[in-house]
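Quick start: load a record and inspect it. Here is Hydrolase:
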Amino acid sequence: MRASLIQIAVTEGESVESRRQRAAALVREQAGADLVVLPELWTTGAFAYEEFGRQAEPLEGPTYGAMAKAASDAGVWLHAGSIPERDPDGPLYNTSLVFSPSGEPAAAYRKIHRFGFDKGEAVLMGAGRDLVTVRLPGTTIGVATCYDLRFPELFRGLVDAGAETLVIPAGWPERRRAHWTLLAKARAVENQAFVLACGTAGTHAGVPQAGHSIVVDPWGEVLAEAGPGEEVLTVEFDPAKVAATREQFPALKDRVLGLDPPRRLG
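Running the structure step on this input writes:
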């Protein structure tokens, strides 16, 4: 299976529409890939909080339309990263979009864990509730977004739902890049799954981005890693390695669930 992670740069001097069209062109250039992935909130920048409301769009808005056409033109499965979604009946959401090679919508995922510690995204956007998986030829992907990476319970849920490849778009800051790499490896090893983690380059509202998109196999081996700037990271991987790993080292079978809460002594 061939995957291309588009580590697009978000810069303040480029309009949202210009970046939208540039991203669509980059997707079309990946014809021949099986799966293409864009980062989190690449239309606005993940830390450009003041832009969320101004640039929010309905689920089937301009980014949806541009990405559906790009997926169809390239003939690829496309995880189009995430957008600030304006729900007419609710709050804003940080929503990921997935399209089939025919350009049909395959899934939408509203980010569950919002970053900000009672400010920023955490107060400006609502929290999703649903785990999302998508069946592709050869593998089932589990969808998560950026800050979700720090919460292993979510990924256990995705694995229980059949996920074999974990796809994580992000707008991860440079100052915590070591965590990005460490957590991507940890989620791969503990879930015996491939991890495709696609970040942004550039600077979001004064926050330098980590870049360094990464693909990790079920043993925690890094198959490919990008640098800090804009680039397309393309990697070939064998989804059958997930089943082989889980059979060879069946750690997931030894999970102990439903433990009683700790008892106080004395």
